[in-house]
Specification:
Blueprint (H helix, E strand, L loop, with lengths): L1 H9 L17 H30 L2 H4 L9 H25 L4 H24 L1 H4 L1 H28 L1 H27 L1
Helix pairs in contact: 2-4, 2-5, 4-5, 4-8, 5-7, 7-8
């Protein structure tokens, strides 16, 4: 409480050194660079996933039996763009706080990002090789991803409420995507 009051009295952007508050600030240039790095990491995962998707979404997936609630393919690009941007901003908010628990929170974030990267090539890329087994493997990956993102939300929330809240639409979308994945595994 004292550190918060000292921070408020010192003014915006001021640093309260030695308070243990986690509010030590980065310079503006480092802040911008940090945000750029998180956005670039999300963009890389998005781009790599798009490669696996584009090579197969107009292939085997066209004739696949899809869930009746499956949106048109054009919906996925804009939704994922928003989600990847929100993910990057959330991670940046946690990183910039430099809180005591930021490192494990960002490790959890990295794990979920890797699982996110894994799902698309498993679901779309392995189907032509493995058939339905790839869809079930994709379902296992997306369930692990939902768990990892939920853990990330639980880590992010106490550090930055906004960061935790920014990931909630992502969790919701993953649950929706898991339902589409499950349907595909059951009916293809």
């Amino acid at each position: 409480m004292q550190a918060h009051r000292e921070q408020s009295m010192a003014g915006p952007g001021a640093s309260v050194r030695g308070s243990g508050s986690g509010l030590e600030s980065h310079s503006a240039g480092v802040q911008v660079l940090g945000l750029a790095v998180f956005l670039a990491a999300s963009a890389l995962v998005s781009w790599l996933g798009a490669i696996a998707t584009l090579n197969n979404v107009n292939g085997w997936y066209v004739a696949a039996d899809k869930a009746p609630w499956s949106p048109p393919n054009w919906v996925f690009g804009p939704v994922w763009t928003l989600l990847y941007t929100a993910m990057a901003v959330a991670a940046w908010l946690v990183w910039r706080r430099r809180a005591e628990r930021s490192t494990p929170a960002l490790v959890a974030y990295g794990i979920q990002l890797l699982l996110n990267l894994l799902w698309t090539p498993v679901f779309f890329g392995l189907y032509p090789v493995m058939g339905t087994a790839a869809l079930w493997l994709g379902f296992a990956v997306i369930i692990a991803l939902i768990v990892a993102v939920t853990v990330t939300v639980l880590f992010f929330g106490p550090i930055s409420r906004a960061a935790g809240l920014l990931l909630l639409p992502y969790v919701s979308w993953l649950v929706f995507a898991a339902s589409l994945n499950l349907w595909a595994a059951l009916y293809n």
